[in-house]
Write a structure and sequence with these properties.
mainly alpha, 16 helices, 0% strand, globular
Amino acid sequence: MKLLDWVPLEKLDWRGLSQNPSPGAIELLEKNPVKIDWRACSENPGAIHLLEKNLKKINWLWLSTNPNAIHLLEANPEKINWVYLSGNPGAINLLEKNPEKIWWPALSSNPNAIHLLEKNLDKVDWRYLSENPNAINILEKNRDKIEWEWLSTNPAIFDDRQALCKKRTEVLREELVEKTWHPGRFRSWCLEHDDEFALKV
């Protein structure tokens, strides 16, 4: 995969590229290992194979945020940063096994930790929970604890069912048109009715 024609490689930032999970960016990192920013790369979910080959260069604090690096973290538990791991949506099983190490403010923002948060409402940080898009049901039942400034950033406070329905309908419409007017189907349909059309002309 190559860069877009109008994007000059020499103007790109290698720290940014080291965070970029795109296959094209990973290919560039593979070809230019000396330019990799390992702190940034450690949080890149698309760079796991690079990290596996360069364990000594990993920044374990940032790796603790990487949802695709759980196997590396499980193999090196002494290097885990539990504050950062608590917000990692891929680390729920690891957090469930180590509840005493959970940092609850970060977990409160973790979209995959709702079942843990529901069982531990006394430990929840309501600021971070207020911005968690998967926590709407908890927030609705605990309106007196909501931090409204933080809730204002939560995309789930808007009822987008109508927009979602419209989007799904549009997808179905496109599929229907695509299948109905597919050249092969259309040609077959015309041939079937060729005699009928000829009589009407």
